[in-house]
Every structure is written in structure tokens, then in C-alpha cells.
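**Archive record**
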Amino acid sequence: MGIVYVQTQDGTPLQLIRDRTLEEYCKHFRHQGDDLVTILLKLAQVKDTVAFYDIGCGEGCVAKSLHENLKERAERLGLDGDLANKVTYIGMDLECGNYWVASDKKKFYRGDILDILKENSAQLPPIDLGVSLFVFPYISRKLETLEALIKMLNRGDGLGILLIEPFNNHQLVFLDGSEERPLTVAESLSGGFEIIYPNGSELRLVAKRGETTPLNVNLAKTECDFWQFSKGGLIGYPGQKISYYQRV
């Protein structure tokens, strides 16, 4: 497919990052000290099947070598290489990518992430591990998308994990009359998950058993906060959307 751009405020096109690799994912995503491949192998040791969600998969480069890398890492650790076959990759993105090759262990969905989750909720398996890299800043319905993902986290034979980077806190704003204040995930989506490691650019959630609490705010509007050019180079945040919410 062609290169995907967003338009900056000064009219300059900004190319979206769509060709992330498995190596890059392993550098960005860690949980309890383990990288992405190790997390998946640990899940595969205790589960018959493992659903791995690549939320905003872009070109789908991660899927290309995922199972080969899982097998290689397993054998290097003295584990059964067949553990790799327990993992099903599920990629979703607004645009198709060059490595979107579906199989029994690799599935792809095209469209808005929130719409995909709603329209395919009956056929999609619970999320054992979900990751999202360089995606959430571009999403308008941030909390709605997060709520849909949380509802899909595995709560049966395991507890699902959701890792999002970056998740910029400044992009969630609560409108109270003429006042504006920061809005946190915990106060807008209470219950159903445990926030393991929140900071200014990363969000780690682990499911709790039982039902999730619905979103208790409504999206009021979104505003673009694109990169601005300065004499010394680029400043600000790239191609992102600030989501404004109000009370239900």
C-alpha cells in the first residue's frame, strides 16, 4: 500500500510510522521485566491458546516473523518449540499493510479499531496480551476504544494484559462548564482492571475477574494537536488528537 500521511497545522504532511518490527516491540513492551516474546511464551506454557492483539498493526511486519521468533526463543530457553503454535496473532488497522497475509495463526481486520471491536466482538477471542505502539495519540475516541479493549481482556483461564505506548495523559481533558482539567483513566473507567504502571507516556492494564464498569463520561469534542515546525527542528507531539469529555 502507499505511504499514509496526516496533515500538520502548517500544511506539511507528516508520514505515519507503520513499519514497526518485532524487535522494536520487544524494546518498547515489557511486563514484570519480560519482553513481548517472553510474555507470550509464558502464557503459552499455561494456556492451550494465546490471543495476541496488535492494535494498530500498520504494515503487519510483526506478524511476518512472530512465530519463527517465538519458536527460536523457546528452543534457546530449552522449551518446546511447538509453544509458538499456541499463539494466534490478531492485527487491526485503519489501512491494510504489505505483510497482511492471513492464516490459521494470523488474522487481520481493517477499519477503525473501535468499530472492529464492536462489530466482531462475538467472533474475536478474549485478549491474553494486547499491545498498541504509536497508535492511541491518533485516536479520537480514546476512552471508548480503551473501554472496548478492557471489556475483551481475558477473565477466564487467565487475566489479560494490555500495554499501550504512548498514552499521553495530556490528551484526556474533562470539561466542567467553562473549566478544563486533566482526566484520568481510573476515574473515567473504574473497576475491571488494575493499572500497573501509569505515567506520562505509557499505560499498563491487567484485567480483574468479573465485569468491567462502563465508561462514565461522554466524548464532547476532539481537537488536533499537530507537530509545529521551529527553527531548530520539530517540537510538540506528532499528529495527535486531544479528546475532551464531559459528564454523562
Remarks:
- DSSP finds six helices and 17 strands in the chain.
- Helices lie at 22-28, 36-46, 61-76, 113-119, 142-152, 185-188.
- The first strand starts at residue 5 and ends at 7.
